[in-house]
Amino acid sequence: MNPADEAIIAIPNAGREFLKELYAILKKAGFQQIRILPGISQIIEGDAHLIQTRSIDLQDLLGRNPVTINLKQSLSYLRGKRVLVTGAGGSIGSELCRQLLSGGVARLYLLGHGENSIYQIDRELRLLQEEGVGEKAAIVPVIGDLKDTNYVDYILSHLKADAVFHTAAYKHVPMMEENAVAAIENNVLGTENLIRAAVKNGVKRFVHISTDKAVEPVSVYGISKYLCEQMVLDAAAKGGPNFVVVRFGNVLGSRGSIVPLFQQQIEKGGPVTVTHPDVRRFFMTISEACSLVLKTGGVGESGSLYILDMGEPVRIRDLAEQLIRFHGYEPESEIKIEYIGMRPGERLDECLWAKDEEPSETEYSRILRIIRKKPLSFDIKKLVEQLRPVCKFDPANPAAYRSAELLKKILKEGSFTLLSA
Known about the structure:
With 421 residues, the chain is α/β, with parallel strands linked by helices. The protein has helices spanning 16-28, 58-61, 71-74, 91-101, 115-130, 149-159, 173-178, 180-200, 220-237, 258-267, 286-299, 316-326, 380-391, 404-413; strands spanning 6-9, 33-36, 54-55, 82-86, 107-112, 138-143, 163-166, 205-211, 242-248, 250-252, 272-274, 280-281, 283-285, 304-308, 314-315, 337-339, 357-361, 367-372.
C-alpha cells in the first residue's frame, strides 16, 4: 500500500463535528483507509500507541461528544487488585478488559463460556502489553459456565477476586423470546450463582451491568435482567459486599447490534431492514459506557442502582440513513430501506427509568442514581424458586422442566406483561 493511501487521525480528544468534517476531507482527498487513535478516556497516561489505532467507523461520527474521564484516577480503587470480568469476550466485557489493562490491576480474569471469544480478547490484551500498552497485569483466561453452581463457587474460591464486573448474559430479544427458558436459566440463575459465590468467597466489590430493557419489561430478556437487578440489590440489602447495578441503553457497534447488521446489508447492496419507521433507541459508544461503568464501580454506594445519561434517543431509521451515507450511497435511491415489522418482545421506545423510579443527579458527569418510590410488588426469592424447576430438572416436578408455557405463566402471575404472550 502506498503510504499516502492511509491516514491516521492522532487526535484522541477530537469532537464529533470535527471528526465528521475531517473524515469528509480525507475521503474526498482519496484516502482509502482512515484510522483513528482511541478516545482520550482510554489513554491512561496521556500517551497513545500506534498499535491502538483502528479503522474509523460510524460510532466515531454519531451522537454527542463522549465525556472525558481520567481513567487513571477512576481506576485507582482497583490498583493491585484481582478483577474478574464475566462475559469478557463480549463487546462490553472486552472493552472493560482493555481499559482495566491500563489501570494497574494485579490480575485480570477473563471469564466466558465461548472459547473463541475468550481466546481473541486474551491474545489482543497480550499483544497490547507486548507493545507497551498498560501495566504488566497477569492476564488469566477462564472458560466456564455461570449456570454451573458448583463450578462458579469453585472458581471464585480459587481466584480470590477482589472485584467482579458482571456483563455475561444472553441479550438478543427476539431470540430469547424463542428460547425463554434458556434466557431465565442463564441470566437469572447464572447471576444468582455468581452473587452467592461472591458473597461466600469474599468479593469486596460487585458491579452488575443492566439494560434499559429491564425498565417495565415486556420481553423475557427484559424480565430476566430486571430480576437480576433486584437480586443484586437484595444481596446488598442483606449486608453483602459493595454491590451496585449500572443500567444503560444500546452501545454502538456491539456484536449482534443493528450497526454491524446494517453494514452487512449495505455491503450486499441492501435492502437495510428496519422494524418500524418510528422505533427509537438510546445509544452510547462502547468506550464511553465502559469508562462510566468503571468509574461508577469506584464511586457507587452499595445497594444503589445507577443509570448512565444516554442523551436523546435516536430514531433507527435516521441511523440507517446515516450509515448508508457513511458508506457512500444515498438512502432509497441507491440502497433501499425496508420496514419488516416489530419482532417478538420489542417495543417502539425504551425508557431508562420506570414510573416508580426517580433519577437524581450525582456529583459525577453522566452518572445518575435511581431512587425507587415504592417497594417491589412481589417476593423476588419466591419467584426465582418458582422458576427453578422449569430450568433445572426436579424429579418431584418433571412436567415443569423446560416448559416455556409454564415459565411465561409464572412471569405473568408475578405481575409482568409479555408482548409475545
